[in-house]
Description:
- The chain is α+β, with helices and mostly antiparallel strands and 124 residues long.
- The protein has two domains: 8-87, no CATH class; 93-118, no CATH class.
- The protein contains four helices and four strands.
- It has helices at 37-43, 50-63, 65-72, 82-92, and strands spanning 8-9, 30-31, 97-104, 112-118.
- The strands form two sheets. The protein has a two-stranded antiparallel ribbon with strand order 1-2. A two-stranded antiparallel ribbon has the order 3-4.
- Strand 3 (97-104) and strand 4 form a beta hairpin.
- Helix 1 (37-43) packs across helix 2 (50-63) and helix 2 crosses helix 3.
- The model has no long low-confidence stretch (mean pLDDT 82).
Amino acid sequence: MPFDRRPWRLQALGGAEPSGACHAAREGGFYEEDCAWAIVALTFPHLFTGFARSCAGRTIKDNWFEAWEAITGTILAPGESHEKDRRAFEAGHAGDWIVVSAITSEQQPGFVECVAAPGGHRGP
Length: 124
């Protein structure tokens, strides 16, 4: 993380608000430090180093690709967003059996036991 581990509250920064596409990440008026800090960096780039702004762009692309695309007008290609790629994979394999767990077999040395579920969905 390019700065300390505290959540950000924009009220302390003059109350400016980020793009409407980014409001969903806010929790109780705060932007948490793990990913949502990137929204603060995008909204107040003058408060962050070039490296931090670069990390923020990557974080927003990976976690909120729709917001990135709406803000920049750029459609991200496959491989440019973890979340977009995950959704595409899930849509493309919704009817396939996907391994969701694997352990070393105690019954058959050298083998791995796997649990698979249709579409990778766990539970009922």
